[in-house]
Amino acid sequence: MKEKIILKLGGSVITDKSSGECKVNKSVLEKIAVELASRENVVPVIVHGAGSCGHPEAKEHHLDKGLDHTNKAGIFITHRAVCSLNDEVVNALRASGVEAVGIHPLDACTAKNGRLISFDSSPVELLIQNGVIPVLHGDVVMDIGQGACIVSGDQLISCLAGKMAVDRIGLATDVAGVFDRDGNVIRHITRNNAGGLEIRGSGSTDVTGGMRGKIDELLLLAEEGVESELFHISRVSDFLDGRDNGGTRVSP
Ligand SMILES: Nc1ncnc2c1ncn2[C@@H]1O[C@H](COP(=O)(O)OP(=O)(O)OP(=O)(O)O)[C@@H](O)[C@H]1O
Ligand SMILES: C=C(C)CCOP(=O)(O)O
Q1: Which of 46, 51, 185, 230 has the smallest number of CB atoms closer than 10 Å to its CB?
Q2: Distance 220 CA to ligand 2 centre (A)
Q3: Is 217 inside any structural domain?
């Protein structure tokens, strides 16, 4: 029986996030695609972040703060940036023989004050039933409270996991896991120990809260009874094979 998994490819991994402009790490994408092509044990849904292909644009047009009369063009500009990255991810997968297609949250979701309130997951489920890997991404989303907002790939994961049964959820980033003050990986986070941790944002331009935003989102997911794992991209094969990946588990 194949495991249904959600794998988030962090923007810190698939782009050069420290660059002020969209720079895709094509060689990393190729390696991930080869890993996925060789796996018969999992049916993945891929979600990716924006990194330098979306965060700088969203920040410049302050879309995380909503729409006003000055920033409407930011919708197109930000969406185009992250869609260009989505094309690169899909193309890398397809070049390795993995049948994949992009799904864009702007077309499929509605939010209220920054939180998703509707997302029809049936295309995602039908695609995987038919052997095609859906590739979703953090995006600008129309918002009935503030006009528009930025929905992170992390929030999308929570939303998807609430709608479809998945066996495991993994988030690959540029760090080995969540570090404590001494730089050691915290192997297990729950609501009980999360309060005392020093978790900050990203070192690069980021409108969705960096590691802090990610852990807050994963703790909400944990409250729904769903566990997730955060690990370094170099350990993706361990995650795919269900082995210890040296990272941080966030659980109820
Ligand atoms: N306590 C911490 N432990 C580990 N990383 C931390 C911590 N606090 C802040 N960080 C930062 O969080 C970053 C990872 O979060 P980030 O949001 O950039 O990842 P991502 O999901 O790959 O990116 P994106 O949001 O573009 O998809 C690390 O590069 C690190 O600088
Ligand atoms: C900035 C945009 C468009 C999406 C952000 O998604 P994330 O990189 O998963 O936080």
Answers
A1: 185
A2: 18
A3: no
> Is 153 marked as a binding-site residue?
yes
Q: Give the CATH number for residue 87.
A: 3.40.1160.10
Range of the domain at 37: 3-175+231-242
Check whether 170 is labelled as a binding-site residue. Answer: no
Q: With respect to residue 251, please indicate whether it lies within any of the assigned structural domains.
A: no
Q: Residue 198: is its pLDDT beyond 90?
A: no
> Ligand 2 centroid vs 150 CA: distance in angstroms?
7
Q: What is the ipTM of this complex?
A: 0.98
Could you tell me the distance, in angstroms and rounded to a whole number, from the CA of residue 163 to the centre of ligand 2?
21
The pTM of this model reads 0.98
Cβ of 185: how many Cβ atoms within 10 Å? 16
Task: Starting from the CA of residue 212, give the closest ligand.
Answer: 1
How crowded is residue 127: how many other Cβ atoms within 10 Å of its Cβ?
18
- Statement: residue 250 has pLDDT above 90: yes
Q: Does residue 1 register a pLDDT over 90?
A: no
Distance CA 10, CA 52 (A): 11
Would residue 125 count as lying in a domain?
A: yes
**Which residue bears the tokens 């969705």?**
208
